[in-house]
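Consider the following assembly input.
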Amino acid sequence: MQDLDAGTPAISHEAIDGTSSALVRKLGRMVLLSTAEVTFLEGLQANRAKFEKGRELVADGAEYPATFIVRRGWVARQKILEDGRRQILSFALPGDFLGLHVNFRRVAAYDAVALTDTEVALLDPNRVLEIYRDYPILASGLSWATVREFNVLGEQAVRLGRRSAAERMCHLLLELWYRLDLVDEAGERSLEFPLTQRDASDTLGLSQVHVNRTFRYLKEAGIIDYSRGTVAIRSFDKLKAIAAFEPEYLAPFQLRK
Amino acid sequence: MQDLDAGTPAISHEAIDGTSSALVRKLGRMVLLSTAEVTFLEGLQANRAKFEKGRELVADGAEYPATFIVRRGWVARQKILEDGRRQILSFALPGDFLGLHVNFRRVAAYDAVALTDTEVALLDPNRVLEIYRDYPILASGLSWATVREFNVLGEQAVRLGRRSAAERMCHLLLELWYRLDLVDEAGERSLEFPLTQRDASDTLGLSQVHVNRTFRYLKEAGIIDYSRGTVAIRSFDKLKAIAAFEPEYLAPFQLRK
DNA sequence: CGGCCAATTGATTAAACTCAATCTGCGTGG
DNA sequence: CCACGCAGATTGAGTTTAATCAATTGGCCG
């Protein structure tokens, strides 16, 4: 499991360890960070806040109070239609930003809602421009994170537009596992899965009933175990085969599994 | 038509006129640009290339040769699945970037394909970092453009996940009209629509046949006229009513219609 | 123990798909 | 100028996937 793919550089750094923030762990996997940069990134997260499960961090149409960095927990970006239909666009996991590029126009185009108890750091969006100005390596890291967000949302569109129910679900589970793994929050063959089946349905563009059936199918086929709050992956291979999962869009250098 | 919504600032500038590039027209609608900034943006687009309809600008999995700025024509970002299924993620219209945030890792996660004969400007992705470093106003403009791209892709996910066929189509048509209008490429009540019905189906997550039926329904209901290459909007109100269209996510200050 | 939310299951319906033709407009070569 | 070919558009028929509706069950919390 600790093996790195041949040819990919093993990025390691004495300033990054298990006590580092998820953001540092994430960026440290992509960019070789100096000690000064690690220190800077940790300092950036000095101003913290907690949100209980279910709380709204930002409302659709309202102004971002700040740029958020997720330190612990899951946040969903979602749109609610006038008749109550809901679509979850994507998840912000530990190490992810919310409102990274919001600076002079701060109006949000979606709700950001805590799916679990969550800890975030708050920073002035103008500090992001400072990073771009003064920290070229970190600026590259932010660009990478930006592109990755695009890719994740793009894959979400492919799932919704052109994949079957089972494909959508398998693909999502793999994406979440890889993303969590990058910040050391995935299990060896499992992940915390704090979504209700209704949340999953609003992510996958399906009805709650159909999500239930699809989960059951995957369980009965021996591909996953699922119970409230946790998914265990019994066969990465089968999951990948169904989803036709290609992890490159998540773009870490080293990929496990 | 020249009326601006009450309360929204009329941004105008003697350095911006009909001969300006689409990028300048677009950013000039959001940010008050100095003459120096306009000149800089035009200079940024000195290195140009043309792509014929159908040509690929970037291939999924390949490296971006450059950051592109679309000057004329439409480009589709799309993913092709192994069995041939296709999903168009979004369109790059005049004034839009392709690969804006690609700098140290340039691998594309989708194909970019010219839907019409297209003219683009090519620039070194590192120049984007220079803009962030040296041109704070333009940096804000790029952040705005980035957020807008996110919002557009987010709405695409909502269309695909939670809207009916007719809603998807109406919503897309309105989005395209507003985006084109911002760069003065929309008609009063019409837009160039270079997509085949197959392209439209791969954008909307429908079959080609169903797109055909939905177009016909909208024509027979007197809401649009559609013929090869052009859509005329007979009723913005009906279109908006069906789509529940809220243009705020496109975030220009002044909105027509 | 009661209440509530989430999960599960069955039955039926509806939206959109596939398959199979046919039609139309346009460009090309004879 | 016309025949041919092709890509895209249109239409009809039958099928499939997933949605909706309607209960019922299971767990957890106060």
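Chain B is about 40% helix and 20% strand. Ask yourself how this observation constrains the way the partners meet.
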